[in-house]
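Predict structure. Chain length: 165.
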Amino acid sequence: MVIRDADDGDWPAIYPLFREIVAQGRSYAFPEDLSREEAHGWWMESPPGRTVVAVDGTTVLGSAKMGPNRPGRGAHVATASFMVDPRHGGRGVGRALGEHVVDWARAGGYRSMQFNAVVETNEVAVRLWRSLGFRVLATVPGAFDHAEHGPVGLHVMFLDLRVPR
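Prediction complete.
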């Protein structure tokens, strides 16, 4: 597996993954009816942000986008979002992308990382982020309309990048 910068040539492989994960209604509150062009604007980051793909040869296993959580006086806090192709789950793709993003944020001088909306029932993601040092600061009750469970909470998760691993 290689993690590299994504470019517009990768979008035809990323978009079906994006569409599938959003349509599942388990982890993202993106609109479900986004066209390929509209979704591109939601996922493919412009500087200072960055979008990457995890690939095995020409197969896209997953993708992550990252950048400042807020502009201006909030730009010292990074954020990121992740999607792993369910057909490639269990291969460490999410962990590799997570470690890559945390390393990127540290190298970029960010002081911390904040994930604004981790669905509390997404146990795999919550366990992964905790294993990388993130903690839940708060849970907004009923903030996500889960396709199977109905209203569930969204965790705000935080990692202090000034603390060594």
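Summary: The helical segments are 11-24, 36-43, 93-107, 123-131.
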